[in-house]
């Protein structure tokens, strides 16, 4: 991780030193290191340019007057505005699901969608909001610490909201019932998948993400069953079903989506990212289900999301070893770590951000109905299925198929839909923050 630290510290000299080591190691392993050689040339030139530039002393600036935090103490909401068919509420502080409550009031003449926000907004009364195809929007400071956004519309709406650090985003998507195609990775032919796989209550936003390309990998398949749970429940079956739900949700949101397999067939681990690279995908997601030995099966459960990096914990190493079984590669720990850093260093930070958004939104989607779902967290791990990806990539462990209760849930259609919905919302959140 020393090279990553050098990048984060913006230490050009240290970056150059580590790049030279990476290039040397890559050549020993017969890896194409051209992009690292190019990066080395850029950094070397940058360092030389700095030396030739005359030293410019910064102008002495008058100290900026300190602004007392009247806004952040008396008022907790900074601004409320509309953008791209969304209402955006920016807070002065971090927010959680406890900061918003949503309900619907229906009358003979109209539907009222009420969003009650925990907070105070100085400009509630003068703020005027408008959205296409929405009859009227009211912004009301109902109580000292309760702001209400009241949306009036004659037609039925299916709004969703996304919680993102200091921001809450309320979206009013357009729903279209269409039949989508799943692209077969090896033959590049299409096979139809009906919209029955799409959750009925999912909020869909056509065209908003039409320029974003997502590749979904349903793990295992064919002779590789993956983990096996009680009652011969196969990991390969669960993840394929979730992958199909996710495919259709993202497609109807407007993404360009591909899936590595749409039936029960085996694909070599090292070939799963080929489709993503060929399609110049923006992100790559590999879906899996976790497991532990029978002695621990009743006690360990929960969802986890991993991004590619040398494993820092025994737990991460164990999970990676399980998922890497169908791809036999032998390397020492030190060589493996260097190899992974060479291939994916530039994508680690972005992959970490994607993993965080997906994990948070999966939890939020599931815990509304299943309060006992455990947050296994976001972790680093050396997963070979992610190695070849030339874009931010993550591996999602949607639960423990070895756990008696969680295994039943993973085979439940409604639970699979909630998982897919959470993953899709996490992808939305990632692209909203990283356009």
What does this protein structure show overall?
This is N-acetylmuramoyl-L-alanine amidase. Residues 273-428 form the MurNAc-LAA domain. With 435 residues, the chain is an alpha+beta fold. The chain has 3 domains: 2-48; 73-171, Immunoglobulin-like (Sandwich), CATH 2.60.40.3500; 180-433, Zn-dependent exopeptidases (Aminopeptidase), CATH 3.40.630. Helix content is 34%, strand content 24%. It contains 12 helices and 18 strands. It has helices at residues 2-8, 12-28, 34-52, 70-74, 235-253, 274-278, 314-323, 333-344, 348-367, 384-387, 404-410, 413-433, and strands spanning 77-83, 86-91, 100-106, 111-118, 136-143, 146-153, 160-164, 167-171, 180-183, 190-193, 213-218, 228-229, 233-234, 256-259, 283-290, 303-308, 375-381, 393-400. The strands form 5 sheets. It has a 6-stranded mixed β-sheet, sandwiched between helices. The chain has a 4-stranded antiparallel β-sheet with strand order 1-2-8-7, covered by helices on one side. β12 and β13 (233-234) form a beta hairpin. α2 crosses α8 (333-344) and α5 packs across α12. The longest helix has 21 residues, at 413-433. The chain is globular and about 70 Å long. The two termini are 27 Å apart.
Tag the structure with descriptive keywords.
alpha+beta; Immunoglobulin-like; Aminopeptidase; six-stranded mixed beta sheet; 34% helix
CATH topology of the largest domain: Aminopeptidase
CATH-level-4 superfamily name of the largest domain: Zn-dependent exopeptidases
Q: Please state the second-level CATH architecture of the largest domain.
A: 3-Layer(aba) Sandwich
Number of helices: 12
> What is the radius of gyration?
24 Å
- Which geometry do the CA atoms define? globular
Major β-sheet profile: 6 strands, mixed
Helical/strand content category = alpha+beta
Lateral arrangement of strands in the main beta sheet: 14-11-15-18-16-17
Topology as H/E string? HHHHEEEEEEEEEEEEEHEHEEHHHEHEHH
**CATH top level label of the largest domain:** Alpha Beta
Mean pLDDT, all residues: 78
Strand content: 15-25%
Distance between the termini: 27 Å
Give the beta-strand count: 18
- Which residue ranges are poorly predicted, with pLDDT under 50 across at least 5 consecutive positions? 64-72, 175-207, 326-332
